[in-house]
């Protein structure tokens, strides 16, 4: 068996710049992986929650839940790219994803036939996502413009999702408008130039 020389790690200027700005890339990657895991688990649980929005009242809530669900998947895909750019990766085992998630699982409530109970779960998930992406934004502000920009876009959409569910639960206007298509992600979607 021949001894192959150990492959040298590539020099990544993008990472070097971030480190020179004083940001610990390993800590950032840990936070990003946990936040991204939360987006994936939320996407999964929102699928179940959406299916249980039944009856006359529930049927009208499915579209808004679907927008939030698909946009969370978009957030997962968007930030996964950044994790790999920074030299990180995601768990190889899907079971570990839920274990490291930055947010609690958005379980189907026992009283799922009451759409307001499902809306409460959706609201709590969005509020956790907001806190998580705000932490990423704070951590990267002035140090990692690319991650900061992506986190800000995600944060703004999470704030919008929270407003939707507050409107539905408490009757407070949110300014929600129908998306052009389900899961559009008006701020976080990739443009045709990326």
TrEMBL record:
Q: Which Pfam families does this chain map to?
A: Ferritin
Annotated Ferritin/DPS domain ranges read 30-169
Give GO BP annotations, semicolon-separated: intracellular iron ion homeostasis
Which CDD domains does the record cross-reference, listed alphabetically? DPSL
Known EC number(s)? 1.16.-.-
One GO MF term, please? ferroxidase activity
- Judged by the first EC level, this protein's enzyme class is oxidoreductase
**Predominant subcellular localization, coarse grouping:** cytoplasm
| Family of the protein in this entry | Belongs to the Dps family.
Q: How does it assemble?
A: Homododecamer. The 12 identical subunits form a hollow sphere into which the mineral iron core of up to 300 Fe(3+) can be deposited.
- From the Swiss-Prot or TrEMBL record, give the protein name: DNA protection during starvation protein
Q: Which organism is it from?
A: Acidianus manzaensis
């Amino acid at each position: 068996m021949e001894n192959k020389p150990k492959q040298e790690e590539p020099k990544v200027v993008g990472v070097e710049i971030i480190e020179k700005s004083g940001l610990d890339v390993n800590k950032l990657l840990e936070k990003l992986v946990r936040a991204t895991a939360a987006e994936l688990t939320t996407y999964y649980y929102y699928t179940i929650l959406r299916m249980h929005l039944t009856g006359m009242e529930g049927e009208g809530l499915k579209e808004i839940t679907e927008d939030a669900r698909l946009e969370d998947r978009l957030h997962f895909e968007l930030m996964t790219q950044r994790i790999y750019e920074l030299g990180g990766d995601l768990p190889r085992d899907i079971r570990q994803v839920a274990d490291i998630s930055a947010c609690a699982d958005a379980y189907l409530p026992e009283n799922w036939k009451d759409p307001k109970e499902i809306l409460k779960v959706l609201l709590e998930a969005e509020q956790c996502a907001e806190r998580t992406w705000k932490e990423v934004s704070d951590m990267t502000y002035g140090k990692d413009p690319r991650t900061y920009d992506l986190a800000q876009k995600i944060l703004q959409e999470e704030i919008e999702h929270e407003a939707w569910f507050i409107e539905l639960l408490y009757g407070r206007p949110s300014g929600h408008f129908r998306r052009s298509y389900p899961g559009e992600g008006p701020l976080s979607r990739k443009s045709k130039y990326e």
